[in-house]
Amino acid sequence: MVHVIDHPLIQHKLTLIRDKETGTKDFRENISEIAGLMAYEITRDVPVNEIRTETPLRRCMTRVLAVDIVLIPILRAGLGMMEGITNLVPTAKVGHVGLYRDHETLEPIDYYAKFPTNVRNATVLVLDPMLATGGSASAAIAMLKREGAGNIRLVCIVGAPEGVRRIENDHPDVEIFLAALDEGLNDKGYIVPGLGDAGDRLYGTR
Length: 206
Ligand code: PRP
Ligand code: URA
Hints:
The protein is α/β, with parallel strands linked by helices and 206 residues long. Helices cover 31% and strands 31% of the residues. Helix 1 (8-18) runs antiparallel to helix 2 (24-42).
């Protein structure tokens, strides 16, 4: 299932990162801020436990998160979404998946994976700004499932219908959250209109 979060603050910041004139500093800040705003919506339904708390005035019942939140940024570009979310959920544990797309075949090549020990029982957010063919996200989710993760949500900023279909086909149990669902892919596998190469724009590598 795909959810497009069309909150005005997110859409305003999305306009800034789509703009080709936006430089590295503003691109990086807005990617991070969009991710934080999206995480606020996406975690709306996570379970809570009631606990007893002593305020300076008296005892009362309060609520705390009942599950661990684990963040899995897909390197490189997923790292740009981290800070905005860890600002909101400072106790989140973080794993990393290293993947890049082969420029010719568009198939993901994996080069790194390290997961926290609590993925099995946690709410896991897989982070990548771009969902293009869906190959990278699908591979990352498959790795997490092999580690025992059962509650996985995919958080991307811009998605293509091709990528959404791929995840719905490969991982029908995984909900997809986007800030925008774009028209499709061009002949080089870039999302149109998209925002270009997210990794290069985040890190100034091109
Ligand atoms: C980009 C992006 C995704 C992937 C999306 O990464 O950040 O991981 O492409 O494409 P897909 O849906 O077709 O798999 P890239 O391969 O450019 O690596 P980078 O983040 O290291 O630049
Ligand atoms: N990866 C990107 O960074 N941008 C795209 O449009 C597609 C894949």
